[in-house]
Write a structure and sequence with these properties.
Blueprint: E1 7-10, E2 13-16, H1 21-30, H2 47-60, H3 65-78, E3 85-86, H4 87-98, H5 108-112, E4 117-118, E5 130-132, H6 136-152
Antiparallel strand pairs: 1-2, 3-5, 4-5
Helix pairs in contact: 2-6, 3-4, 3-6
């Protein structure tokens, strides 16, 4: 990578220039968030932790379980294409599954529970975010376990 005139790399340390944004742009170039060479924290969650997260979601926010099912289906469909899916696609999937029009402010709640992760920067002026579900099979297992608990009660 060719350094610009805004910063200098000296013995492994970055020396900032007079323009503070230069270091930020350099750091963004080095830390491309879409680069999948670095494993995600969510990749390390085992099946039991994911199952607990699904159960916690069902207990605290049961209205989001259909959204999680739609996100799981969207993640399955997007796997051949890199596994990334837009939040809007999840809403369309939810509309198909429920037969009614749905609106959600975003999928940040599922990110907070550790069930999906944001993948890269938002696009379309910040109005479209892309996500991925690193442990889809464990999420599906948690949903099946939730279904079996619902049937037994």
């Amino acid at each position: 990578m060719e350094p610009s005139r805004n910063y200098h790399k000296l013995s492994g340390h970055i020396k900032k220039s007079r323009r503070p944004f230069a270091l930020c742009s350099f750091a963004l170039e080095l830390l491309d968030l879409r680069d999948r060479r670095f494993p995600s924290i969510l990749d390390a969650m085992d099946g039991e932790e994911v199952s607990r997260a699904v159960m916690r979601l069902a207990s605290e926010r049961p209205e989001w379980i259909p959204v999680l099912r739609a996100a799981t289906e969207r993640a399955r469909k997007s796997e051949p294409f890199g596994g990334e899916f837009a939040g809007h696609w999840v809403l369309r999937e939810l509309d198909e599954q429920t037969g009614s029009r749905n609106w959600l402010p975003g999928l940040r709640l599922l990110v907070g529970y550790g069930l999906i992760e944001k993948s890269g920067e938002s696009t379309r002026g910040g109005r479209r975010a892309y996500y991925r579900m690193p442990n889809r099979t464990a999420v599906e297992g948690g949903l099946r376990e939730l279904d079996s608990l619902d049937r037994s009660h």
